[in-house]
């Protein structure tokens, strides 16, 4: 299995509180991604990173921020959690992107509930 | 943004039947990927396609990269109960974009 760990695996938080999810990899892969998965919407890209301190927005980035201060960690922060951010969040890693394709590996997911 | 239209949304089939699903886009892509997600797990890569017209098999799974580079197809032959899950198409342009998924249920 690819060395990718998400923490926490489950979290319940109150509306308006900040929340940070962590993705840690031991593969030294350049690309890291954060997705949310909701019924009927598949996997939607929130943010991604193509290197340390290099990040870009995905299709559903509003209300989320990310940071990547070292290769192995990619943090996703909900600045002020809302009920619409209740979802399952997946992190993925990939050695290359674009034309230089390699397989993307996924973490086990984090189930976040905002009450 | 880029959008991958995947169909059907769900399928309910009997064990032993063949399955077909497809993914289309208005944009051209150089790589098409097919993933499967088991309940409670993250998606896992099944097949990767690199060239227009390419047909690739992985056991009972066969996928094709459409000649226009705007679509791809996945077929599963002789389905079995462990084929249950959600199947996603995806494209990789730095932004790894996924389709909305096809949920497959297999009944004995």
* Strand and helix order of chain B: EEEEEEEEEEE
Distance between the termini of chain A: 34 Å
Which percent bin holds the helix content of chain A? under 10%
> Tell me about the biggest sheet of chain A?
7 strands, mixed
The H-and-E topology of chain A, N to C, reads as: EEEEEEEEEEE
Q: Can you count the helices of chain B? A: 0
Determine Rg of chain B (CA atoms, Å): 13 Å
Q: Give a count of the beta strands of chain B, DSSP E runs of length 2 or more.
A: 11
User: Which structural category fits the helices and strands of chain B?
Assistant: mainly beta
For the biggest sheet of chain B, the summary is: 6 strands, mixed
Structural class of the helix and strand makeup of chain A?
A: mainly beta
Head-to-tail CA distance between termini of chain B: 40 Å
Task: Please state the oligomeric state of the protein chains shown.
Answer: heterodimer
The global form of chain A is globular
How many H/I helices of chain A? 0
Please explain how this structure is put together.
The complex is a heterodimer of chains A (115) and B (108). In chain A, 0% of the residues lie in helices and 57% in strands. With 115 residues, chain A is mostly beta strands. In chain A, strand 7 and strand 8 (73-78) form a beta hairpin. The mean pLDDT of chain A is 92. Chain B is an all-beta fold and 108 residues long. Chain B has strands at residues 5-7, 10-14, 19-24, 32-37, 44-49, 55-58, 61-65, 71-76, 85-93, 95-98, 102-107. In chain B, the strands form two sheets. In chain B, strands 2, 4, 5, 9, 10 and 11 form a six-stranded mixed sheet that branches. Chain B has a five-stranded antiparallel sheet with strand order 1-3-8-7-6, with no helix packed on it. The mean pLDDT of chain B is 92. At the A-B interface, strand 4, strand 5, strand 9 and strand 10 of A face strand 5, strand 9 and strand 10 of B.
Task: List key phrases describing it.
heterodimer; A: 115 residues; mainly beta; seven-stranded mixed sheet; four-stranded antiparallel sheet; 11 strands; 57% strand; globular; B: 108 residues; six-stranded mixed sheet; five-stranded antiparallel sheet; 56% strand
């Amino acid at each position: 299995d690819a060395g990718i760990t998400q923490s926490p695996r489950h979290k319940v938080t109150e509306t308006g509180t900040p929340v940070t999810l962590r993705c840690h990899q031991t593969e030294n892969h350049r690309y890291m991604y954060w997705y949310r998965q909701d019924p009927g919407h598949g996997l939607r890209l929130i943010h991604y990173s193509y290197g340390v301190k290099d990040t870009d927005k995905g299709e559903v980035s509003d209300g989320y921020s990310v940071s990547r201060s070292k290769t192995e960690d990619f943090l996703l922060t909900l600045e002020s959690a809302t009920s619409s951010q209740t979802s399952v969040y997946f992190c993925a890693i990939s050695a290359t992107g674009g034309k230089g394709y390699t397989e993307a590996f996924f973490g086990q997911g984090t189930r976040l509930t905002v009450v | 943004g880029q959008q991958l239209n995947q169909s059907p949304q769900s399928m309910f089939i009997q064990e032993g039947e063949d399955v077909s699903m497809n993914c289309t886009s208005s944009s051209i892509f150089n790589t098409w990927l097919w993933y499967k997600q088991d309940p409670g797990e993250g998606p896992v890569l099944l097949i990767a396609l690199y060239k227009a017209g390419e047909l690739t098999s992985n056991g009972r799974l066969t996928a094709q990269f459409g000649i226009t580079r705007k679509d791809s197809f996945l077929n599963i032959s002789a389905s079995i109960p462990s084929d249950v899950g959600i199947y996603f198409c995806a494209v990789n342009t730095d932004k790894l974009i996924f389709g909305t998924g096809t949920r497959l249920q297999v009944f004995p």
